[in-house]
């Protein structure tokens, strides 16, 4: 029996050693599995990061395209703004020239009006003087006419007296 025991003990020890090796291998496999999982997780994270990077790069590319379009649009708007500024500047210059021309024209017209007013005032003074002279001449002529009529009357009276005297004589 002892030999059977010994054999069973050896068999058990052998199986125990085998079991320990299997457990050790299981632990090693489990460790490797954890490493593989960690590696796989790392790869998944890297893939996600790469995917994120690709998405970010695409978004960045889209934004760069948008910025380029915006820059081109801004250049066009800047050109349009410059055209408008030039047009406004030209219009302002034209308006200023027109204002200066109008100011000069108004100044000339005011000077001409002033000269005409002076001329009118001079003519009015002369007219007033001529009117006074005419009134004086009219008064003189009226006096002379009255004298003439008086003389005519006296002549007629004398003529009639003269005719009577001739008849008497």
TrEMBL record:
It is found in: Cytoplasm. It comes from the Eukaryota. Keywords: Coiled coil, Cytoplasm. GO terms for cellular component: centriole; cytoplasm; deuterosome. GO terms for biological process: centriole replication; de novo centriole assembly involved in multi-ciliated epithelial cell differentiation. Its main location: cytoplasm. This is DEUP1 protein. It comes from Baryphthengus martii (Rufous motmot).
């Amino acid at each position: 029996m002892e030999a059977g025991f010994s054999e069973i003990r050896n068999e058990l020890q052998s199986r125990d050693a085998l079991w320990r090796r299997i457990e050790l291998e299981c632990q090693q496999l489990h460790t490797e599995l954890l490493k593989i999982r960690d590696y796989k997780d790392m790869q998944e994270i890297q893939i996600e990061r790469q995917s994120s990077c690709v998405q970010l790069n695409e978004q960045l590319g889209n934004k760069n395209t948008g910025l380029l379009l915006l820059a081109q649009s801004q250049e066009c708007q800047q050109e349009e703004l410059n055209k408008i500024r030039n047009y406004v500047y030209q219009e302002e210059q034209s308006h200023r020239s027109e204002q200066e021309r109008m100011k000069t024209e108004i100044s000339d017209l005011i000077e001409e009006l002033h000269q005409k007013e002076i001329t009118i005032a001079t003519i009015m003074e002369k007219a007033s003087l001529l009117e006074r002279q005419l009134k004086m001449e009219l008064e003189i002529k009226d006096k002379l006419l009255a004298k003439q009529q008086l003389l005519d009357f006296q002549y007629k009276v004398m003529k009639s007296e003269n005719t009577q005297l001739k008849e008497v004589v």
